[in-house]
Amino acid sequence: MENAMPIRFDKLVFVKTLKDSGQTEEQAIAFADALDKALEQSQGQLTTKQDLLALKHDLITEMNNAIYKMAGIIIGGIGLLLGMMKLLG
Fold it and tell me: To 5 degrees, how large is the angle CA 86–CA 84–CA 79?
């Protein structure tokens, strides 16, 4: 996507064309602004399949880390509980 040619857009010609076809100047300017913003956004970098796969890998890694931390806390809590039961029992 980096090698994409930018789209040329002449807002003045666009506004004049709309006005000549019966649109008010305010409507023509609003349409031109909206089209200009849409074209700018379409020229931005798009997400690739590789980007999504990398994100998926990162999310799986984070989830696994969270699971191991929770398991450690649970095992530690059970050990503490058993120790207290032995001490008191």
Answer: 95
Task: Identify whether the C-beta of residue 37 lies closer than 8 Å to the C-beta of residue 45.
Answer: no
Sign of the torsion formed by the C-alpha atoms of 45, 47, 49 and 53 = positive
How far apart CA 58 and CA 79 sit, in angstroms, is 32
The pTM (predicted TM-score) of the whole model is 0.45
Q: Is 32 helix (H, G, I), strand (E, B) or coil?
A: helix
Element housing 59 (H / E): helix 49-88
For each of the chain's 89 residues, which pLDDT tens digit applies? 455 566 778 889 999 999 999 999 999 999 999 998 888 887 777 788 999 999 999 999 999 999 999 999 999 999 999 999 999 97
34-40: Cβ within 8 A, 24+ apart:
35/9, 36/9, 36/11, 39/7, 39/9
